[in-house]
Amino acid sequence: MTLRQERSSVSRRLAYVVISVVFANYLGNAFIYVVQAGATPVRIVSSLACLLAIGYLQLRVFSRPSANVRSANAYLALGAMALLVFAPVPFFAYAWGGMPGFLAGSALLVLPGRVRWFVFVGVAMANAATKVTSGITLGVLAYSMAATLVAGLVVYGLSRLPSQVYQLESARSELADLAVSQERLRFARDVHDLLGFSLSAITLKVELARKLIGDHTDRAVRELTEILGIAREALTDVRAVASSYRELSLTDEINSARSVLTAAGVAATIEADHAELSPRSRTVLATVLREGVTNLLRHSSATRCSITVSGKGRTVSIDIVNDGAPAEVSADHGSGLTNLATRTGAIGGSLLAKSSPDGTYRLHAEVPADPAPEQPASGPRPFGPSIATRFAQVLLTAVVIGYGVMATALATYSVPVGSAAFASAAVSSAVTALLVLGVVSHPRVRANPALGHAALAGLAVCVYVPQFLFHNPNLGGVPGFLAGSAALILPRWFGWAGFVAVVAGQGVIQAAFGFPPVDIAYGVMAAMNHGLVLYALTRLRSMVVELHEAREELATAAVTQERLRFARDLHDLLGYSLSAITLKSELTHRLVTTDPDRGRQELTEVLDISRQALADVRSVASSYRELSLNEETQSAQALLSAADIDVTMRIDGCEELPTDVRVTLATVLREGVTNLLRHSKAERCEIVLSSSPQLVTMDIVNDGLASSDRDARSGSGIGNLTTRVCALGGSLDAGPTAERTFRLHAEIPL
After folding, report:
1. Which of 267, 265, 263, 269 minimizes the C-alpha distance to 226?
2. Is residue 484 within 8 Å of 528, Cβ to Cβ?
3. E strands along 106-170, which residues?
């Protein structure tokens, strides 16, 4: 589990704890007032049953992240909540005044559109209406209505934010998958554009060299030399694509195109007169040239081809025209031209490919000589996170202001509206709300401890000065805001110690001023609730922002993993094939004058390998490749024999092995043989594969310790194999033995 995930999990647990405590305080406060009004067994049992039912509906039906609040069950639960909130009012009167907040908040969760807000306000008005009697003061009505509205927002917010966080956490993996898909498309494009051309050119030249052996030996030697050059360049391309960067040379591509077209018997006319190009434009034009020539060789029967690169000033164009219209309609719509259109469009250019009535085919691309700097990808962002962030901020603001209004309204219970005491309470509530919204809940306060401590001092003045000045604990604004702010600003344990001290201190102050136990309990519970709500909404809002940022981090990490996977697959699959092509081409180069028949045979195998390599290109680009252990065994034996290495193979029957084990062993065999050919001068090689019900092992031992054996052990190939084998719970070792041999040993538990 990552640090980010760990934090989000802790925050979710914290949210559930806060929800439970806050809702329990609301319910507990109602129960205290019910008992105070008359502690008969019937009242106690009936009120407890109703309160527990309300708590169950809120926690288990409306507040669960996985709950479907638009279902028929949710509407039934909302109806049950309405009965539990309003039906007991005639029996419990004022004691039940805090319960409509649960109904108001649940209505916001369940009902659709604007209807929920009408019901939300209607519940608050209905709660106030139940208290209308002769002699009721306006302050009491205002307080009752504000209390219901604020409680409804608290219930709604605390119930909704955990589900928002849950949805955001689920969306992170979707975003990572999207980034991975984009990265796969980019890799597929690079593999197709770079390696497809090289392998097609190798195939073409091998076919030509095979025909020339015997009759035109000198020309066959030249073609073999070019095959070796292309194979080595393709190996460089493998490394370039794997490392996510490749800058092509337009001049080199023009020379390569001329050579390949000439070898194919196509009369080529090439003209290049263009302005200085930026690396990006040069690479795109070189890629267009590569793909255009590749399509010509694959899909047409051209005898003439004209290539023109021209342009001065801000725009440069390339035209590739041939007299052999594509034999396949799909060539016009294949992935190659689609990739080119994507590349040219990315730098502000354009691409056109079409057949003409005169039987010619034209590929035209235009790009700016110096395109605008590349901007980071900024596709449309999912709508949810930004909504959640704004929602959390608005909710926090509404609740803080609502608590301030409630505190001011509460002051009218004990002091005249126009008195200095009331003015002091109003100012205290207003300043407290401003400090909380402007400083305490702002992210920058974490980076500025002095500012946070100053805010705490200001809150303490607002809370305690009016209380002690007028000997009335109801004039201190919202003491719970001081408790919640301490938990937010101070270090963890000090913060919660401060929270407890403020909450407990409020009870001590009320006891010192001679308030009855019920009022003391109410004061303590109110301070605790206000503090927890402030802490929870601020922390949960911060968590939403953190998750919003973490999505990009996770997407980047997923892309990095995908790059590593591509690098590993490219190395394991194409590195082997290109090494084999290079080896067999060098062998043919030596045989062409002494043993032409053997040379033709080797070139036939090169053709097979190059065609398989093209298939590997497609498989890597499509993100899947399952190697056959039997095929790799046969291929390894043939390749080592062609290199004049005496091979001994002992392969147990492994048909019953799991697929992932067989594929991994096939990869180990490929890489082991590739390293042997690259890094050693072996004369003998022994390959042993054995299995038991518990374990399968593979040993590749050769007698050709090279001076570069350290590179073979520490290179990316062995590292990739180690990663693959360890993923299955196995181990891999590579190194010299006491018998002066080099041994690659892999074992995988079954």
Report:
1. 263
2. no
3. none
Amino acid at 377: A
Give the Cα separation of 223 and 213 in Å (integer). Answer: 10
**Cα(612)–Cα(608) distance, rounded to whole angstroms?**
6
d(CA 104, CA 113): 15
DSSP state of 681: -
Query: In terms of C-beta density within 10 A (0-12 exposed, 13-18 middle, 19 or more buried), how is residue 179 classed?
Result: buried
pLDDT digits (tens, 9 = 90+) for 500-510: 999 999 889 98
* Cα 477 → chain centroid: 45
Q: What is the pLDDT of residues 19-33, one digit of tens each?
A: 888 888 888 888 888
409: closest CA among 633, 138, 168, 650?
138
Q: What is d(CA 123, CA 594) in angstroms, rounded to the nearest whole number? A: 100
Q: How far, CA to CA in Å, does 35 sit from each of 39, 96, 164, 199, 439? A: 5, 11, 38, 87, 41
Where does residue 430 rank: exposed (0-12), middle (13-18), buried (19+ CB within 10 A)?
middle
And the tokens for 16?
């559930």
Query: Strand order in 646-651's β-sheet?
Result: 646-651, 684-691, 695-702, 742-749, 731-736
Give the containing element (helix H, strand E) for 165: helix 138-190
Model pTM score: 0.49
What would the two tokens of residue 225 be? 């030399």
